[in-house]
Amino acid sequence: MSRPYVTAIVVAHDGARRLGETLRALVNQSRSPDRVGDVDNGSKDGSADLLAQAFGCGNLISLPRSTGFGESVAEVLAKLPPAGDDEWIWLLHDDCAPTGARWRSCSPQRRRIPRPPCRARTCSTASRPLALPGPGHLHHG
Which end of the chain is more exposed for a tag (fewer CB within 10 A), N or C? Predict the structure, then answer.
């Protein structure tokens, strides 16, 4: 089985206090994403600057403060070119710091079902160390 193409999407909204930890955790994964899409929803605390420093100003999508998580993800996906049939989309919120072993839990043996509609894994946050509903999950595209 081929190695999946991984797109990580980081969504921030006034999350600078924990965003640095999330970005460091993303960089320190046992398997780096193939590309990262980042979006800031009108932050007033420097979150946009942190994202731009991490991924470059040209990659940052800036949206209004009222934009929801799902709409932010949709905006990023609409701007990225398709990556193929074996793309995994990894959704991260500004306060979601995945462990370095996150990708080992997504081994090929767990992907025996052809084209599963969704593969979910939780990540840790400062306020909820074991689970985060919504962001932090993997989705097989």
Answer: N
**Helix, strand, coil % (nearest 5) of the chain?**
30, 20, 45
Looking up residue 116, the CATH number of its domain turns out to be 3.90.550.10
C-alpha–C-alpha distance, residues 44 and 51, integer Å: 13
Q: Range of 11's domain?
A: 5-140
In our burial notation (b when 16+ CB lie closer than 10 A, e otherwise), range 16-36 reads bebbbebbebbeebeeebebb
Query: pLDDT tens for residues 42-99?
Result: 999 999 999 999 999 998 999 999 999 999 999 999 999 989 888 999 999 999 998 8
Residue ranges with strand state E in the chain: 5-12, 35-41, 60-63, 87-93, 138-140
- Classify the C-alpha dihedral 51-46-100-131 as positive or negative: negative
Q: What is the pLDDT of residues 6-18, one digit of tens each?
A: 999 999 999 999 9
